[in-house]
Amino acid sequence: MDFLWRAVGGGHYRVSLTNLQFSKEKSQSSPLHAHVRKGRRSRLGLCEKRPLGGARGKAERYAEWRVSQLRLQRRVFCPPGHGPNAELTAEVSAPLRMQLRWTQRGMMWLGALLALLLCSSLKGQENSFTINSIHMQILPQNTVQNGENLTLQCLVDVSTTSPVQPLHQVLFYKDDVLLRNVSSRTNRESYLIPHVRVCDSGRYKCTVKLNNKEKATPEYEVWVKGVSDPRVTLDKKEVIEGGVVVVNCSVPEEKAPVHFTIEKFELNIRSAKKKREKASQNQNFVTLEFTVEEQDRAIFFQCQAKIFSGSNVESSRPMRSELVTVRESFSNPKFHIIPEGKITEGDDLQVKCTVQVTHQAQSFPEIIIQKDREIVAHNSLSSEAVYSVMATTEHNGNYTCKVEASRISKVSSVVVNITELFSKPKLESSATHLDQGENLNLWCSIPGAPPANFTIQKGGMTVSQTQNFSKRVAEWDSGLYTCVAGVGRVVKRSNTVQITVCEMLSKPSIFHDSRSEVIKGQTIEVSCQSINGTAPIFYQLSNTSKPVANQSMGSNEPAIFRDKPTKDVEYWCSADNCHSHSKMFSEVLRVKVIAPVDEAKLSILLKEEVESGMPIVLRCSVSEGSSPITYKFYKGKESKPFHQETLNATLAIWHEDTASKEHEGQYYCTASNRANLSKHVIQSNTLTIRGKRSQQQNAV
């Protein structure tokens, strides 16, 4: 609804009740006079006005009634700077869609009266408001299936003294992140999340702000169940054995990270042939390569996506790909055995393995023929491999043909039976252990006694061209003997017989590496050796009282024994080998053991207090030591002994017939023999001698 009037300052102004905005028009005559602030807009109500003359009539009362019908802005106040002389400023944002036409001059009076009445009613008033409550509804419910629509409704209850609802802000949050900010005058605002996904799970709330007042709802947990169906695409629909199929699995409408499981299936088989898993941290898809195996014929792939949502794991439905057709690169291998039927030793045996290669193969596969684990033939230049040999019973067994090309391997097997022409020969001997000079008899035989050619061999050398062999043996006749028998082209080797010829031992010699004398406690090495005789040789070292040690030698080198004798001792050794003769004994080895001097002691035979003129007798003795022993007597700190002698005894005596004052002091002795090194000389205890006056000296 628009009104046009002329302001006091001149010019005409248009008032639109749709927006209550003012615009200046060209000058037109009008009986209405009012003060209007030119060009000023505001989200405010009507401000102070200058009174107009005239009595209130029906038109004015009608204007008051129309104002009560209009949904004007909730807050009506004067903007800063508007005082008693403020000019008319107004804006109404409520939707008034009144299409009124300006048909007569009286309607202009009605609009002016309406504006003046509103300003008159609001003059000098300040509105109050409060937020009573705020609540959020989640539709259809807090738990929704993936792909459904989710609506968040924020319900606000505001009380105000204004006749119109104030403009307030409604803010929607997810996990404290702002989703939407809307200005509203209504008590209900909605936020639609179409086709929710797992990433939409979380905690939601809404907040209302009204000037400096604010209130928020509690957080509401929203749980999106399930994951949208993954898309499975392949790089090819037909593949050759050994080839690779690239599988792409994606969930375009979900957000990473996503855990994908891709399985390979054979058509009409329930269980998966291969399963691979991969987590994508930054993308909502993965690409994996699957090798096509030789057993694959018609395959497809199935993908499932899983996403972690808080403590829950949401899973999609398994989705399958298109069917992939697998073409053979080569056929399964096939055996051909020649001759067919019965095969006898001596026949020419041919084991052939063939394969058919398709035109799609870029090269021939490798064909391998194995007997047990041994490769007997192979070929990679044609479509067959052949193993040819003269048949013997050793060629009996299972043969395997493997055809391999890159990742593909195909296998087939066949059993070959060879009929024996004659049995394996048997070699026997009169004895396997013989003394040198005894007779050896060997004979070779075949069960059934067919006519055959025989040879007897020792270590690959023929020793006889006949079935039997006899000889007076020497030590060098020891070794491995076999018999070889042949019928036609078939040659067979007998069992092996070990013959040992033993040479009698020579008398062992015994000796040691030390001088004739050995110091007590030191280790000596005693050697025992038989120069002649067949090894191994068994030696035993004994002394006067008991055996010391045993030792086996694989040659004629001396056996070395170690011992620590503590006294004079006699050693001998015995030697024995495979010869039937009894043990051989050595001569006796006598070893002299000298004992070092141990624990020297100095003592005085008379009193420690010696009277002048009386004799002094000192004795130096040892507890153990081999003769001769050197004794030395020392006084005080003198470096040279005042007496020294070497005796074949365990003590030495020094005496002085007439004692005097100069014999007072400290004495000690040392004792040593040839077993003591210079730095190991034994020193005795220290003895103190004190002088004493005689009775005659005391009387004088």
UniProtKB/TrEMBL annotation:
Keywords: Cell adhesion, Cell junction, Cell membrane, Disulfide bond, Glycoprotein, Immunoglobulin domain, Membrane, Phosphoprotein, Repeat, Signal, Transmembrane, Transmembrane helix. Transmembrane segments: none annotated. GO terms for molecular function: transmembrane signaling receptor activity. GO terms for biological process: cell surface receptor signaling pathway; cell-cell adhesion via plasma-membrane adhesion molecules; immune response. It comes from the Eukaryota. The keyword Ribonucleoprotein does not apply. This is Platelet endothelial cell adhesion molecule. It comes from Capra hircus.
